[in-house]
Design brief:
Layout: H1 2-27, E1 38-42, E2 50-53, H2 54-57, E3 64-73, E4 79-88, H3 89-95, E5 106-112, E6 122-123, H4 125-129, E7 134-140, E8 143-144, E9 152-155, E10 174-181
């Protein structure tokens, strides 16, 4: 009788854990089984949603920035420089002909697979005016971000609106960029 009760207890705990994790997965904004080496650009400001793999991003189709120093500032006003390599966001938008309106009428936001996102939308005109200062990075200090992502959004502090911090727009495990009409 004790053995039977033990097995019932173990089965109950296992079922409880499975149900818990299935509920956690269901509450996420992304599909955890989707290829983490893809990024999606979507929203009502573009012609059609698009998914691009990391291998497509690095194929030479889009403009590349290599070993560029980005000035970063975090919310405790610590400033530092980091060297990144990646693809220009503006290049992707131009090559794929995604934008429905001028950049001044659109805004964008980054989303990470870990549930973190940019605190708010930024006007897309800052990307058009400074294309080499907004990238989808795949290397930090010449080291691939494969363990962290493999992509990270990076924006230089010089183009961030006053009172905002670059670190809040530097999203690890980047999986989605939302572009919407203002």
């Amino acid at each position: 009788m004790k053995t039977r009760n033990f097995y019932i207890l173990v089965a109950s705990v296992i079922i409880g854990l499975v149900v818990f994790w299935l509920m956690m997965i269901a509450s996420l904004e992304f599909d955890p089984f989707e290829d983490p080496n893809k990024i999606t650009i979507e929203g009502n400001g573009i012609s059609a949603p698009i998914s691009i793999s990391l291998s497509d991003l690095t194929s030479g189709k889009y403009d590349l920035v290599e070993d560029k120093t980005f000035h970063i500032k975090n919310r405790v006003d610590t400033e530092y420089d980091v060297v990144y390599s990646g693809i220009l966001l503006w290049s992707i938008l131009e090559v794929e002909n995604l934008l429905l309106h001028s950049s001044s009428r659109l805004e964008f936001r980054f989303y990470g697979r870990d549930g973190f996102s940019s605190p708010k939308f930024l006007n897309l005109s800052i990307v058009e005016a400074n294309p080499d200062l907004v990238i989808l990075a795949f290397e930090e200090n010449s080291v691939p971000l494969s363990l962290e992502g493999p992509l990270r959004s990076v924006i230089d502090q010089s183009i961030i609106p006053e009172g905002e911090y670059t670190s809040h727009y530097s999203i690890e495990k980047l999986y989605k960029i939302m572009i919407q009409i203002v």
